[in-house]
Amino acid sequence: MGARRTHRKSRNGCPECKRRRLKCDERYPCTNCVKHAIQCSYIAQDVSTPSATPTTQPDSLHTGRHSPSIPRSYPATPGYASAPPENRSDLLHFLTDSPNEIQTLETDDWASDLELMHHYCTVTCNTLTVREDARHVWRVVLPIEGYSNKYLMHGILALSALHRAHLYPRWRDKYIKATAYHQAAGLKQFRELIASPIDPDNWQPVFCFSSMIMVYVCASPVRIGERWPAPILNMAELFSVVKGMQSIMEPWLHSLKKTQLAPLVNSVHLESDLILSPAMMRQSLLPPGTHEHLSLLHNFVNDYPFPESEENPETPDGQPMPDHRDDYKKALAFFGNSLRQIDLAGPHIEIGMVLMWAYSLSNRFRDDLEAYRPPALVLLSYWCVLLHLVDHSWYINGASRELLGDIEEKLHPAFKDWLTWPKQEVFGHR
User: Fold this and answer.
1) For a FRET experiment, which of 106, 110, 327, 334 has its CA 20 to 30 Å from that of 47?
2) Are residues 229 and 299 in the same domain?
3) Backbone angles phi, psi at 377, to 5 degrees
4) Is 145 strand, coil or helix?
5) Do 364 and 423 fall within a single domain?
6) Within 13 A of 209's CA, how many CA atoms are on the CB side?
């Protein structure tokens, strides 16, 4: 019998882990901080995040096969309690939780910043979109905005350093420290800025920095140095960040198309009055039968036994609470909108066309994701097919396979038939 391995206490962990009462492995940057997109304020850790335990299903749940194309009766849905609030990490919480301390780079000089800026303007900007007019915005317009908004310039350098960490594993530690430094410096100023209402003078650089935050969060595995620790929960956090960005910028989005930033929106939201011709449909990268499978999802949502709502429920602001099923119908409506944008784009799919689905997801839907409830996991598995279309991006980088694999592990056996089509499209025939 081998010697018992001693337990090493974390006595010198980063202040952020101590504040959250988390075990810190005292490496830089801390895995806990990286996982939650928080700038580590000290030397941090490499603690793997344990997978949450799926909601326990009662013994009465049947596990017989049934065809997803002909919905039958479903088992009762247990345990519809609210998910723990600590799982929520939207953009506002992300900014609030970030520490004020900013690390000093060992090579904190102008030459390093010039290297990062050159890489951003010649390489990174071209990886963030496929349309040349949108690339012009990332390459030219954002740096010009950065000249007068220091936090945005820090965001540009942070993104460039993160990209170089992905491209050059030999120098990964150097660039991870650089991205951590610049992101923390940018966030510190950004938090101070949005503490007051956004106004006509600053909403454009705020939008630019918020867009970079989404890329930064998507690229969490690059910062961690491994795959997503808990793909379903990590994706729920990303959805919350997207939703948080929307809540901050919503009052100004109507003005966006009148500015130099318009291509960033026009490349994702194509003209709604365009008619899909047979020739356009032949260029679509959506798998054959995608729209038919969306119809099956509508049947699934219509037939699923969601818990009965309490009488006249209200939201915290006194508005009538939508029915649980309505949350899913809204998600499916936006799913259909994503499909249309992808069809219209032909071979030129923008990642925003896939991520825009997050705008429709209610807090209740994200709670269902975090609790591994069947209806949310089934919808998420179909979304994996769309995510798979942009898996080649360096900051997505195979996330659809990881996510669908986690769904397959967590989904109750009674619903596994619903994964047949997503698995065929993401994994190949299996």
Assistant:
1) 106
2) no
3) -70, -35
4) helix
5) yes
6) 29
CA-to-CA separations, 313 to 198, 309, 310, 371, in angstroms, rounded = 32, 7, 6, 22
Q: Is 272 exposed, middle or buried (0-12, 13-18, 19+ CB in 10 A)?
A: exposed
Q: What is the pLDDT of residue 280?
A: 65
Q: What is the pLDDT of residue 35?
A: 53
Amino acid in position 384: C
**Token representation of residue 360:** 């429709």
Q: What is the mean pLDDT of each run of 10 residues along the chain (430 residues)?
A: 48 65 64 56 33 34 38 42 36 50 60 95 96 95 96 96 96 93 90 83 92 90 84 91 81 86 86 60 85 94 81 52 85 93 89 92 93 96 96 93 96 94 86
Domain match, 182 and 287 both: no
Domain encompassing residue 389: 272-308+320-427
**Domain for residue 147, yes or no?**
yes
Residue 26 · residue 36 · CB < 8 Å: no
Q: Which amino acid is at 429?
A: H
Residue 316 CA, chain-centre distance (Å), reads 26
Q: Give CA 216 to chain center in angstroms.
A: 10
Phi, psi angles (nearest 5°) of residue 44: -130, -160
SS3 of residue 27 by DSSP: strand
Q: Are 127 and 276 in contact (CB under 8 A)?
A: no
In a domain, 74, yes or no: no
Give the position of tokens 């960040």.
241
Tell whether 183 is covered by a domain.
yes
Residue 173: partners with Cβ closer than 8 Å, 6 or more residues away: none
| 3-state SS assignment for residue 55 | coil
| Residue at a domain's end among 266, 299, 329 | 266
Q: How confident is the model at residue 273, as a pLDDT?
A: 54
**Which one-letter DSSP state was computed for residue 69?**
T
Which two structure tokens, joined as six digits, stand for 304? 């699923």
Q: What is the total residue count of the chain?
A: 430
321 and 313 in contact (C-beta within 8 Å)? yes
Work out the angle between the directed axes of helices 203-218 and 150-167 (0-180°, nearest 10): 20
Return the structure tokens found at 359.
């705008």
Q: Measure the CA–CA gap between 402 and 9, rounded to whole angstroms.
A: 31
Kindly report whether the global pTM for this prediction surpasses the value 0.70: yes
Beta bridge partners of 320: 314
Contact yes or no for 85/424 (Cβ under 8 A): no
